[in-house]
Every structure is written in structure tokens, then in C-alpha cells.
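User: Let's play a game. I give you a shape written as C-alpha cells, and you guess the letters that built it. Ready? Here's round one.
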């Protein structure tokens, strides 16, 4: 292969490789673990224990606001919510945690529990 045809060959190989990556292959399929993260906040809202929920997929955490400054109430709410979410969180990849925050003190979680 001469010096002129080598770059063309590499470009053609790259184009063929990229052509094999169709959008349908990179999209999430229904029912996979990533789809379950979109169901977490609606499931948490259904418990009636909180109205504010935020999923952070980068950190693998779910933050909720529990209307209390009592840490025992927060721990109980955390455990209750985690139990209710277990059918959804069983399929999540990696370690996920639920953090409860107080509307009166949002600088750090009032409770943290593992989602599994």
C-alpha cells in the first residue's frame, strides 16, 4: 500500500466501523435497568412521604425531602421508601443510595440508606 492509499483505507475502515453503530443499538431498550431510574421519583411520590425527589445517575443517588428536622423520622422514612422501591432498584447497576433531606437543613442528608 502506498502512502496515498493508506489514509484513504483508514478513513474507509473508520466509516464502516461507525456505520455499524446504528442509533437503535445505542438506545435503551424498554425494561432495562436504566429505564428504572425514571420510575424512581414517581414511585417515591406514591408513598406520600415526600413531594420533592431528585435522581443523580452520576452519583447513584436519590435525594428526597422529608418534612421533618428529626433524624429518627428521616431514618424511618428512608427505610420505608427504600423498601417500597426494592422492586425497581433491584435491577440498578452499581451501588445506589437514598438520601433524605430536611427542608429546614439542606446542607447535608438527615439520613442515608442503601437501595437494593
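Assistant: Ready! My guess for every position:
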Amino acid at each position: 500500500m502506498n502512502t496515498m492509499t493508506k489514509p484513504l483505507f483508514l478513513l474507509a475502515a473508520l466509516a464502516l466501523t461507525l456505520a455499524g453503530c446504528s442509533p437503535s443499538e445505542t438506545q435503551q431498550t424498554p425494561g432495562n435497568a436504566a429505564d428504572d431510574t425514571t420510575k424512581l421519583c414517581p414511585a417515591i411520590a406514591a408513598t406520600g412521604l415526600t413531594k420533592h425527589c431528585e435522581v443523580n445517575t452520576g452519583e447513584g443517588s436519590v435525594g428526597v425531602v422529608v418534612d421533618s428536622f428529626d433524624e429518627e423520622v428521616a431514618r424511618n422514612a428512608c427505610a420505608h421508601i427504600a423498601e417500597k422501591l426494592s422492586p425497581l432498584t433491584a435491577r440498578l447497576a452499581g451501588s445506589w443510595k437514598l438520601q433524605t433531606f430536611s427542608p429546614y437543613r439542606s446542607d447535608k442528608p438527615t439520613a442515608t440508606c442503601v437501595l437494593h
